[in-house]
Specification:
This protein is mainly beta. The chain has one domain: Cupredoxins -  blue copper proteins (Immunoglobulin-like). The protein has a four-stranded mixed β-sheet with strand order 1-4-8-11, with no helix packed on it. A hairpin with a 2-residue loop joins strand 5 and strand 6. The chain is globular and about 55 Å long.
Amino acid sequence: MKARFFPILCGAVLLLGQQDGAAQTGGTVEGTVKLPPPPPAARLNPRYQAQAGAFLPPEPPTAVVFLEGAPPPAAEPKATNTVRMLQQGMQFSPGLMPVRTGTRVEFPNLDGFYHNVFSYSKARRFDLGRYLKDEKPPAVTFEQAGIVKLYCEIHEHMRGTIVVLDTPYFTKTDTNGAYRITGLPAGQFKLKAWIDEKLVREQTVELKPGETTRVNFPGSP
């Protein structure tokens, strides 16, 4: 079956892995997540001052919200999803990306100089080596749920995170912390908000068909 591409948009709420019919009859959960303040601006290594004109600031903080323990749709398709995390302006874009287990991720280089993508994370270890804009390294498939931290061996300030989930019910907040997930099954489940590696919030939710449940997640205690 031909791979499907799902665009990842900065500052947009993503509703992934859900079917139109389920969205019309299932439950909905929405709310806000208290996000941390933006990190301080990274300092560009003097070795790369010639590339400074292409240097972009990192994206504002966002969070990943997902439903844990809910069964997937009975008629869920078996297609392989492929998404892209760009290297652009000496940043990973998006800097935070949720994907479901089994998703393939491509890492195109859109800058006019070498980049590299590697990770030593337990959920997925890999190293794509150095490559230029017109070169295409192989896509990486993420089979194991967990957090994958990404780095560029050339530009040490570059950081990216892929949250690999074994549920089809997830989304990424916008930059104000707002989120909405539709097409959810009825029942009592755990709703979690992944804010960073040290801060994951969770609340128990009771979902009912055709009804919207509001859940807000506070920040650090």
